[in-house]
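input
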Amino acid sequence: MNTISIKRVYEPEDATDGFRILIDKLWPRGMAKAKADIAFWAKFIAPSTELREWFGHKPENFPIFVQKYTEELEDNPETEGFIALCKRQLKENNVTLLYGAKDEVHNQAVVLKNFIETKLKTT
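output
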């Protein structure tokens, strides 16, 4: 079975990345589109601007961010289609969720990966 992983978009592409999806609402600073080697930009799956700005990448806000972003994912009409895309890709490739944040522990990719994996186990 192929896997879902997360990675900073600034890290070089690796042969094991498989299908690379940018999950940020905004294009990463200083990253040329040609250099990013992204298969799909899923800005619709990113946290809302209000939630992202409130979170501010502050680790102390992360527990509440997880709860609120999970609620947004549950309410997002495009989430089901995004999970279906990931599921299709996982049949042939690994899926790598790309994000721009510096903090590798407290970011939306961590939340989204767990959310997708939980949904895939229940379908």
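quick obs: Residues 62-75 form the longest helix (14 residues).
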